[in-house]
Write a structure and sequence with these properties.
With 673 residues, the chain is mainly β. It has a single domain, classed as Maltoporin, Chain A, CATH 2.40.170.20. It has a 22-stranded antiparallel β-barrel. Strands 3-8-9-6-7 form a five-stranded mixed sheet. A hairpin with a 2-residue loop joins strand 16 and strand 17.
Length: 673
């Protein structure tokens, strides 16, 4: 689609939106109607596995409300996550993202735990998240809770640098019908429908369906990379209360889609690359059930189980994975000054990988199990001082027993001031890819500066079955100030110590005259070869200078220093060295105007990364919306308006072609009744 065609495409959408004025509907929540104090008192559950006030959470936590998602104009979960301080969100291509907290970012970032309604989204294949696989109706998201920092004592391995918990609205709050449609220049079509109704006398349910269609991304020369993609998803959720003490939730989703991929794979035959183009099909489904029962006013038990199935192909590697997860927890008060939460968990995962020329592995099929138990005690030392002690013990099939303790102290002398300190240990355990996979990552042609021999040099990266877990010891402290309803300040400082980080260690080149075609082979083996420290400051401030105007400023400063252990002097690991920006800044403005108009502006700055290959950039998003009647909202959003396009991340693994994020515009109509 040419730029002129995209403009005409958007203009037609605007005319369609203006024709959608019909039906008396209920209104939408307004961000400016909530005071700063009310935002500070939002109940969050990710910190302690129970509801607690955000202002009294002894960790670095940030909450994106559903209304903030709507007013940002975000049409996907990764776009909404750009609001979070300390979180690096970078688009690699039209259908690939790199998202991480406090460093170590890549397409396959593996130190961030992501959940949706209690269901873990990360893939055990590589301990990270394929963001293009996970979606929901954006209007149904109640909030996204983001913890920057370790949460392993409650949530287990891989909750190392952060936790993202996406929480959808209860069916009781989504009754009636909703339809939304968006058309744009890059996110070409995005829409969904939802219907909610009572489930007899015991509760409520909702059904939903969504679809997305994205245009291709451009490279630095303005050429399309043919990475278009589309997805369709549907699901349901039912919340029931058989009696006053019991709550039952049953929910599920299924999705399918097509992701077009065009790249060049390494080859041992001249010209030493092979064009690869394919339309990959994705499929997934999940089913979750959770029951909670109040034993008394101070005691509650919860049992959750879910099943997840995923099928995906990427760069000629295809796999099918099945995961079953069981989780039990019990909260009670043995003494007046103690609140104890304990629980156990079991996870079973099995997958099947296909074998190709570029990928080999020890076994096409494998399975592993994870057993866990945790205990946490919140001790009220004085009315203003609270101590939290806890630990999680896990047994996995790779490193066996892992212990992850945690200690946190909260001081809240009044409603204006609070401060917290934390000392934690977290681990990131090896996974299927790191222990079993062998990848032909590159072939260096002969007679080039990188290879001055007469034969091609084959670069293989291979896993290591004897890897230990990566470990983090984290020191954190924070301060929150809410002197009045119109202003708040949240400050966090952290210092991290990492041990046994993974890096690729090259072996001496070898030549085997029996191999065909003839080549020189160099193997890069994954080892616990690196260590280091990182530190940073994160600041968030909310201010309402006028009743109908809200500003939010967030700033992140980050530094890291990583080095090889003495016995692994030549090890390589780009994700820890240069993939995180030293500085990020975000300023959002939300203004309510007369005649049911709202205007939202969002400017953000990200420093250069990857040794300057991705330069620093500053961008502006703008959204204007109009509600001509109750329940109807029409909006136009412009994203990345300051530049025609700019790069955000260059992925170094698995031959992802670099692309750039384009200036785009989309118009949206949302109707509810």
């Amino acid at each position: 689609m040419t730029p002129s065609q995209k403009v005409h495409h958007t203009a037609r959408l605007c005319l369609l939106c203006l024709l959608c004025l019909s039906s008396p509907l209920y209104g939408m929540e307004d961000l400016t109607e909530i005071s700063i104090e009310e935002l500070a008192n939002i109940k969050v559950t990710s910190v302690s596995r129970k509801p607690q006030r955000l202002s009294h959470a002894p960790t670095a936590i940030f909450v994106i409300t559903g209304d903030e998602i709507r007013r940002s104009g975000s049409t996907s979960i990764p776009e909404a996550l750009r609001m979070v301080p300390g979180l690096q969100v970078a688009r690699i291509s039209s259908n690939k993202w790199a998202i991480s907290s406090r460093g170590f970012n890549s397409r396959y970032a593996n130190k961030l735990l992501v959940q949706m309604d209690g269901r873990t989204l990360y893939s055990p294949l590589f301990s990270g998240v394929f963001w293009e696989l996970h979606d929901t109706l954006m209007a149904d998201i109640d909030r996204i809770e983001v913890i920057r920092g370790p949460g392993a004592s409650l949530w287990g391995a891989n909750a190392v640098n952060g936790i993202i918990n996406i929480i959808t609205r209860a069916p009781k709050k989504t009754q009636g019908a909703l339809a939304t449609q968006s058309i744009g220049t890059w996110h070409r079509r995005n829409g969904g429908v939802r219907y909610g109704a009572p489930a007899g006398d015991m509760g409520h349910y909702r059904l939903y369906a969504t679809y997305d269609n994205w245009d291709e991304a451009m490279d630095s020369q303005g050429d399309g990379r043919d990475d278009v993609w589309d997805t369709t998803q549907g699901g349901f959720r039912t919340d029931l209360s058989p009696n006053t003490d019991t709550r039952l939730t049953v929910q599920g989703d299924t999705y399918t889609g097509h992701i077009h991929e065009k790249t060049a794979l390494p080859s041992l035959i001249a010209p030493y690359t092979t064009p690869y183009e394919n339309e990959n099909t994705i499929f997934g489904m999940n089913l979750l059930s959770r029951i909670s029962h109040h034993l008394s006013a101070t005691s509650e038990v919860t049992l959750q189980c879910y099943y997840d199935r995923s099928e995906k192909e990427e760069a000629q590697l295809s796999w099918q994975g099945d995961l079953v997860d069981l989780d039990f927890q019990h909260r009670f008060q043995p003494l007046d000054d103690h609140e104890v939460i304990w629980g156990t968990g079991y996870r079973y995962y099995a997958d099947t990988l296909s074998m190709t020329e570029n990928f080999t592995h020890e076994s096409p099929e494998t399975s592993n199990q994870l057993l866990s138990a945790f205990l946490q005690d919140e001790i009220t030392l004085t009315p203003s001082l609270q101590l939290t002690l806890g630990t999680k013990i896990e047994h996995n099939d790779y490193t066996h027993v892992e212990i992850q303790p945690n200690a946190r102290l909260l001081w809240a002398p009044n409603a204006i001031h609070s401060a917290w300190w934390a000392l934690s240990r977290a681990v990131r355990t090896p996974n299927r890819s790191e222990t079993q996979l062998r990848i032909q990552t590159a072939v260096l042609p002969p007679g080039t500066p990188e290879n001055q021999t007469d034969l091609p040099v084959e670069i293989l990266t291979q896993g290591n079955a004897h890897l230990d877990s990566e470990t983090l010891t984290a020191l954190e402290m924070g301060y929150r100030l809410t002197p009045e309803d119109s202003f708040s300040l949240d400050l966090t400082l952290f210092y991290y110590f990492y041990k046994d980080l993974m890096g690729y260690t090259p072996s001496p080149p070898r030549f085997d005259p029996e191999e065909r075609p003839l080549r020189i082979t160099q193997v890069h083996t994954l080892e616990n070869a690196r260590e280091g420290q990182s530190w940073g400051v994160e600041i968030v401030s909310n201010w309402k200078p006028m009743p109908l105007w809200r500003l939010q400023l967030s700033e992140t400063l980050f530094q890291g220093h990583f080095s090889n252990k003495s016995e692994f002097a030549e090890s390589i690991s780009e994700d820890s060295d240069n993939a995180a920006p030293a500085h990020q800044l975000s300023l959002r403005s939300g203004l309510d105007l007369p005649r049911n108009l709202t205007l939202d502006l969002w400017i953000r700055h990200v420093a250069a990364i990857q040794e300057g290959r991705v330069p620093a950039y500053t961008e502006l998003d703008t959204r204007i919306a109009w509600s001509p009647m109750k329940g109807l909202e029409l909006s136009i959003t412009g994203q990345n308006l300051l530049h025609k396009r700019h790069p955000e991340f260059i992925e170094t693994l698995l031959w992802v072609h670099p692309t750039e994020v384009e200036r785009s515009i989309h118009a949206q109509a949302t109707l509810s009744f």
